[in-house]
Each structure stands twice: as structure tokens, then as C-alpha cells.
Amino acid sequence: MSKTFQLSRGQRAAWVAGLFVLLLMSTAVVFGLTNDSLREGQGSPLAKEYTTVSDGEGEGSEATFPATFGEEGKASTLVLYDKTDNTSSNGELYAVATGNLVTHFGTAEIKPVAEYADNAMNDYDAVVYIGTDSAATLPPAFLDDVLTSDTPVMWVGENLNAMTSDRAAQFRSEFGWDPGQTRTVSSDLVHSVRYNDKDVARYTDSVAILESPVVESGSSVQVLASAQCRKDDAPVSCVPDNADGAQDVPWAVRSENLTFVSEIPLDYIDENDVYLIYSDLFYGLLAPDTAAVKQAAVRLEDVGPESDPADLRAMADYLQEAGVPFQVAVMPIHIAKTPEGDDWYGLSLLDRPEVVDALKYMQERGGTLIQHGTTHQFGTLDNPYSGRSGEDYEFYRYGCSATARQPFEFGECSNTSYIRQIGRIAEDSMEQHTARIEKGRQVMVDAGLGEPEIFETPHYAASPNAYAAMTDVYDARYEQSDYFAGILSGEPSEAGQAYSQHFPYTVHDIYGSKVYPENLGNITESEQNNHATRDPEFLISRAEAHLAVRESTASFFFHPYLDINYLKDTVEGIRELGYEFVPVTELK
Prior knowledge:
It is globular, with a radius of gyration of 29 Å. The strands form six sheets. Strands 1, 2, 3, 4, 5, 7, 8, 10, 11, 12 and 13 form an eleven-stranded mixed beta sheet that branches. It contains twelve helices and 30 strands. Helix 7 (309-321) runs parallel beside helix 8 (353-364) and helix 11 (536-545) runs parallel beside helix 12 (564-576). It is α/β, with parallel strands linked by helices. Strand 19 and strand 20 (410-411) form a beta hairpin.
């Protein structure tokens, strides 16, 4: 029998030392895996991809959009505007805003009024002229056609005095009132406009004065809306020392085929509900037989890889039990700084199967998933807050200013900051935006959630190139949107020269997309960016204001991490106004 193998004393010492080293190495590995300072997704390919971006502002060509747009096969509207001197940008933006609205009824074609040709309005179902420049010279062909054509015309704002002189007698004979006679009313007296037996709120700072037409009693002129003159909550004479002492004056009138609106109700539309009257007047112009409806929609907002699945399931359970179809705005990729703030991490829905399961649960209970950007942030910028998904803008650069107007004083953000545009992001080509959007959509597909059919722009803001890319990928958006001066003339877009528009009904906007309306906003628990707290009562009051529109829409969004009772109160309050909740795709 051989002798049992034995280690020498030196060999035993070496073996023990080796075990000790191995133990230290194992401990280091385990500690590294469990170190709280390491965040899942830290340094991941996603983190690197979406924090490695070009420096500076976007340059190069911008997308162009046709001046004729909308839904073919329905009514056609010619929208004319003053393209003169320093008012041309406002005129163009007002024309785009009006064009967007009339696409609810069909197509819009926008052009400067100076380009109007003889008998052109006979080729359209209606014409809208927006007068912004009192010094503008209107083409005689346009003035003559307003007087002689049967095409419905809406004249908004300035320059009706062009119908005086040699055309005044014909105007009086045709329409029953004198275009040269007006009442000059101080704007600060008019806090509301009476329309269809409702007092609609008016923002007094939108203009300095109102020029109201004088309509004789007993005439055939129909007063569609009346400006109510008040001071210290008491009725007052609209024109001091006026003999009749009228405490209300015509704000919008209709006679024969002419509708006249005494001001352009497109400024401050968040506070200026006469925008809703304007939106509704197009029914009389283009679709007078439209039946009234009250429809509502709700969207659960900013749902991404770091959302709480329990919150999502609770929201879905309540909405299903309440019989409320709903939408879910999904951020496919999450990018944020690590807790220490010295690095970045990135996750997608594919890294969070429990969130994906919750999203499928929501789909089973009536939820429609839409794509809400790809990362809802851009690069490592504080844009303007932190660079974290869900907080920042993705398709345009923004900053926090201590001043509301130029010169802006950009700095750290606070609740009293004003969020203001800075410029195009560095990677602003249409191709770059398209690739980014498609990457997010593919994540949703790969997660087994199906292919979304609707897009929502993060924070409702993007460049013209980004909007063009969205239209390239998606047929529809669900949101409010920004529209830039120069969009028709081909001039480069500029930060701050843009118009933000919400819609009272579904439109087909100048970017070539169907746009489903979100028009009430959302619940907030604290002041944000000089906006007061918004509770359920506030959203319900906005829904009530939108009853001024024939096809009334009450559409809002809600963050699932908030108390579900806010959602319940809002849904029930909107229902009590007579609204019926429908899938967003069914909104008129």
C-alpha cells in the first residue's frame, strides 16, 4: 500500500494563503455587485447613446409645409392674412391657428390677402380674412367679392373701414349695417362675452380697445355674441357719455353671408375663452347642421420603466370599473443621473418586465398605449430641469428665466421661473428625429405591447423638423402643439416666435397630422412655473367652459403616482356636466 499523501509545512502555509486571497477576491466581487453606489443601467449602452450628443444649437435646413392642408373630401376654406411689415409674423401665426381650426371641417389654404385674385372665393366653401395691420391696403378684387359673392365670409379684426367711401352704400344695402359706424370700447371693461346664453370669460389684456359695430334695433343683422361691460362687478355703460348707455355691445355679428368678429381672439388662449367662441363660429360658416355632442377623454401620463406597477394596475382597475376608456402615454426609455449625480444610467421597458406586465394589464382593461417621446429628455442638458426622463423637453431647448419677457435671465429653475424657448437642439435633422422616434416605438414592439398608432410630444414642444419626423412615423398625435412664425414663408424658425395651440375638437394640422385634442391640462399639487395649483375643480371648470363649442370636448391627463381620488373626482365632475368618456380615436 502506498503512503498517504501529505503536505509539507511550507505547502500548507501557501495553501492557506491562497484560500485567504480567494476569499478576499470573492468578497470584493460580492460587494461590488451589491454596492448601493452602483445603479442598474449605469454606463449601459442606452445611457451612452442618449447622453452622447452633439454640442451647440441645431443648424441646417428646416422642413417646409404646404399652405394647403387638412382632410380631403370635405369643406374647403381660404384663409387670408396681412403679410405686412412687423405684423406679418403675427398675421402668419394667426392664419396658421385659424387654418388648423377649419381643418376640423375639411381643408384649409392659407395665403396673404395681397395675393387674392378676382373671384377666387368662388372656388371655396368659405373664406376667412384676419386683419392684423390697420395700415394694410386690401385688394379691390377681395373687397368687391365680399360684397357680391355668395361664398360665406368671416372677417376678423381690422380693416373693415376699407368698405367705406364708394363701397359703403352697397355694404349697407347688402348687409344692413354701416361699416363706418363703430363704438370704441375700452378692453378693460369687457371681462366676458355673452354667447348662446353663456357668459364666456375674456382676457382683457389681449387688446387695448374693441371697435364694436353699431347695429340698429329691428335690423336683419343677427348679433351672435355680445361684449358685456362691467366695472367692479357691476354693469356700466360701454361708452362713457353715450346717449343710449348700452351695457353690452355686439362682439360678433352675422348678416347674409358675412360674419364679422370685432377682435382677433387668438391671444392668451389658455385664459381667453373667447377663443372657444371663435372655434364654434366655424360651424355656422361650414357645417351648420352638425349635431351637438359632449365627449371626454383621459390619458395617464409619463409611464415608463421606473413607474410603479401597482399604481398602474390601480388606475386601470378604477377606470375599467367606471366604464372609462383611457390612454396611456408611454416613455419607452428612461435616462437619468445616478443618485450621486456624477454619472448616468439608462433603462428601457425591456429591462422592466413587471412594468410591461402592468401595461399589458392596462390594455386588457381598455387602455390604449401611445408613444410619449422616446426618452422625454435630451442628452446631459438641464432642459430645463435635470436631464431626467419625464421632466425635460426632448425635441427643443428650453431654459428657466427669472423674467417673463426679453431680455431673459436664464438660470436655475424654481417655482417662480418662466419656462422659455432657447433654440433648436443640436441633433435637429428630420432624419435624426425619425431614427429617435422609431427607436422608442421599436422598444414597445419588442416588449410585446404592439405597435402604437398615436404619438404625444413631450411637454407639447418640438421644432418644425421634429414635427415633420413625427408625421413621417405616425398619422396622429394626441396633444397641444407649437407652430412657428415662418412656417409659411419659409423663413428660419426662431425661439420665442411660436404659437402654442390647444384644440376644442380633432383637427388635421399644418404639419400633416391628425391631432386629437387635450384641452384641459392636468392636476398639480403645487405651484409650477408661475402656474397656480390645479385641482379637480379647476379641470371641471375648464370642461364647463368648453361647452361653448358645439362638439364639446373635455380631454385631460393625469399622472398615476398622484392620489387616485383626484382622478375619481375629475372623472365624476366631468360626467356630471353631461360628457361621455370615449376612446381618443372617437373624439369628433
